[in-house]
Amino acid sequence: MLNFVLCDDNLAFLKSLDKTLNKLILKNNFNAKVGFSSDKVSDVLNYINNNHTDVLFLDINLSNSDNGINIAEKIRSRNKNIYLIFTTGHLEFAFLAFQVKAFDYLPKPITAERLEKTLIRLFDDINSSDNKFIQINNRTYINEKDIYYIQKDGMKLLFKTADNIYETYSSFQKISDKLSNNFIRCHKSYIANISNITHIELNNNTLFFHNNLECFIGQKYKDNLLKAINK
């Protein structure tokens, strides 16, 4: 399920956007939810740093705060996969929005029809061939982007995402050919998705992800991991 976050300093607009999004999600049977909305940038950044976030609706011209472009750059430095959708009444910011690889730019006032077109295009993009799914069993597939790390636990592999742990009887050897280059062996018992790492503490050999999740770095795998991250 995609997790949407909304940030705008206009509370009336924020409530309206939240309500309209939920109606359109229900109407189109999208697998998504509005997980968090706030007029406070600090609360939004704190939420994104600690919770898996797929889509952020962000106002560019935030009063009494840093502007939305700078905020987007901070978020981009930690999360390259998040979809950024800017909202603003100032059309002159449109060019800047795409400098931070925004998915769309919605001029206010935003109609339900315009928002629905953006959502349909968003889900078309997410469901495109660029997204890779890993089969866990006959009924379960996980989007690679949602996996934080894979842990070896005896005869099982545990796939850790923001909300769940999926398990299957398999081995690193069998699964490695199915994974993209974002997945790097970091420990004898862990394979990490380096796209979802929030920060690294080398002094205690630990990788950190959203929701305070963590896995470990083995000395044998350290150099190769750091080379992959730097690349």
Question: What does this entry look like structurally?
Answer:
With 231 residues, the chain is of the alpha/beta class. It has two domains: 2-126, Response regulator (Rossmann fold, 3-Layer(aba) Sandwich), CATH 3.40.50.2300; 134-230, LytTr DNA-binding domain (OB fold (Dihydrolipoamide Acetyltransferase, E2P)). It contains seven helices and 15 strands. The chain has helices at 11-27, 41-50, 68-78, 94-99, 112-126, 172-176, 222-230; strands at 2-7, 32-38, 55-59, 83-88, 104-107, 133-135, 141-143, 149-153, 156-160, 165-169, 183-187, 190-193, 199-201, 206-208, 214-216. Strand 13 and strand 14 form a beta hairpin. Helix 1 (11-27) crosses helix 5 (112-126). It is globular. It starts with a strand and ends with a helix. The relative contact order is 0.11.
Structural class: alpha/beta
For this structure, the CATH topology of the largest domain is: Rossmann fold
Q: Output the radius of gyration.
A: 19 Å
Strand residue percentage: 25-35%
Strand and helix layout:
Elements: E1 2-7, H1 11-27, E2 32-38, H2 41-50, E3 55-59, H3 68-78, E4 83-88, H4 94-99, E5 104-107, H5 112-126, E6 133-135, E7 141-143, E8 149-153, E9 156-160, E10 165-169, H6 172-176, E11 183-187, E12 190-193, E13 199-201, E14 206-208, E15 214-216, H7 222-230
Parallel strand pairs: 1-2, 1-3, 3-4, 4-5
Antiparallel strand pairs: 6-7, 8-9, 8-12, 9-10, 11-12, 13-14, 14-15
Helix pairs in contact: 1-5
